[in-house]
Amino acid sequence: MGLSLEVKNLRVGYDRADVLTDVSIVARAGEITCLLGANGAGKSTLVRAVLGLTPPREGEILLDGRSIAGLPTHRIAARGVGAIPEGRRVFPKLTVKENLRTGAYLERDGTVIARRFDEVYAIFPRLLERSNQLAGTLSGGEQAMLSIGRGLMGSPGLLVIDEPSLGLSPRFVKENFQVIRRIQSTGISVLLVEQNVHQTLDVAHRGYLLSGGRVVAEGTADELKQHPALVAAYFGGDGH
Amino acid sequence: MDPALFAQHLLNGVMLGVIYALVAVGFTLFFGVLDVIKFSHGDVVMLGAFTALATSIAASAAGLSSPVILAAMLLAAIVGMALVGMLMARYLVLPLRNAPTLNVLLVTLMAGTVIREGVRLFYPQGSNPKPFPRLLPTGAFEFGAFTLRHDSIVLLVLGVGAIVFVHLLIVRTRLGLAIRAVAQDPETASAMGIPFRGTVLATFAIGSALAALAGVVNGLYYSEVSFNMGLLLGAIGFSAAVIGGLGNVYGAILGGFVFAALQTIGAVALPFASAYKDVFAFGVVILLMAWKPGGLLAERSAERV
Known about the structure:
The complex is a heterodimer. By secondary structure, chain A is an alpha/beta fold. Chain A has a domain of 131 residues: 3-Layer(aba) Sandwich (Rossmann fold), CATH 3.40.50. Chain A is built from 10 helices and 10 strands. The longest helix of chain A is centred in the last third of the chain and has 16 residues. Chain A is globular, with a radius of gyration of 17 Å. Chain A starts with a strand and ends in a 5-residue tail after the last helix. Chain B is mainly α. Chain B has one domain: Orthogonal Bundle (ABC transporter involved in vitamin B12 uptake, BtuC). In chain B, 74% of the residues lie in helices and 4% in strands. Chain B contains 12 helices and 4 strands; from the N terminus they run ααααβββααααβαααα. Chain B is globular. The interface between A and B is medium-sized, with 24 and 22 residues.
């Protein structure tokens, strides 16, 4: 089942500057939790800290109550944290099949891996058609499917999804949100970073609004839709 | 040209190509996973040859038969250099991961000098070339004027076998998948659960084991090794890797054979001065680089993002 994530008083930075100061969030097991905010608000830095790519300077990161702060990235993956990274980051010179295989790198059982391939191909039949094609030759939308499929191949308890709709056509964006909902319905917890506020709040259970490296608003999706900070930033003065 | 002479040159060229390819694959693997040039690689080739030589002397003193000595020296050289490669990666290259690439180049250049001078000073009479034992069958097939020595066949099978083995390892195995993923995007690879450091160490072990094999094959082919043999072999292996397109394993293999072909052509075209074959080969490499700056199998820059 889904894993819960608790980030407490996190301070993260590069070189001398802190990008996040005293950030605390909770992603409940089995729910979709979204991180909203403008470019440079610190969303991606928070994701990098959770994945262990940028170790925090202070604070705690707890996965189902156990600390993962400071662990190397591959060990955090082994605890059940899957990633659909920003920009999709498929391996361009691996085939579609090989890309998916990297997602199940930690799984040794061949029959389990075969079953996961079937599951991913059932969600994205297009990937099956292209299974022997190099990922670098796929269209942007197909690469997005591949990145999501690869994230699912590890059968994660918590899936961190960073800006999945960036650079995609509206039709793909809509499909992406349907897939995210479908992922959550299988019991996987989702931490979703998005700029697409309307559609994100339609699928998310709860969320946080980051600005200048701090949490400036939090609550359920419905509460956030009404929140003055969000209304001001994204919904415009006319409240449409 | 006389067909027998042509065949002889061809065989010699292929033999050299195998040796160069084995060295070049190491360069390209290291560059692939870490974006570094490890300039001590040629000296690891030499150290592998000397490890084999010392093992063969000890084994023949123990009264073992030729095939057993051969197996023992191959094993000692390959395992020994795999360890040396991992130690260098762990303590010289990985700690400099966030330093400028030039620093890694400098450190490995110095490490190579330490290895080279170490062998010269500490191996008995290390300054002189050493005879390498002839452990392979000495017979030959005669086809008119063309002679195919049995030992050449064994060496070719050994070298080509190693190249095929590495190809299968890279393409078919879980470790090979990890190496390719780390080479393309180390962060994403680690987010998939692939251990970065472990994969780098394994890559250096494989590349250095190939260097050891190249050193032993070289020693068996020429029946002589010397403490400075790694200088030219390193320069050739590096050139071959760059000709083929640094980071591309098949490019490195191709580059090894291209370089050997150039040397052979140089030796044939300049029979009055075959000592100039390296000048010819490196000269053509310079022209090749001017023509295809990214190497023959260059990766288009869009694919490297």
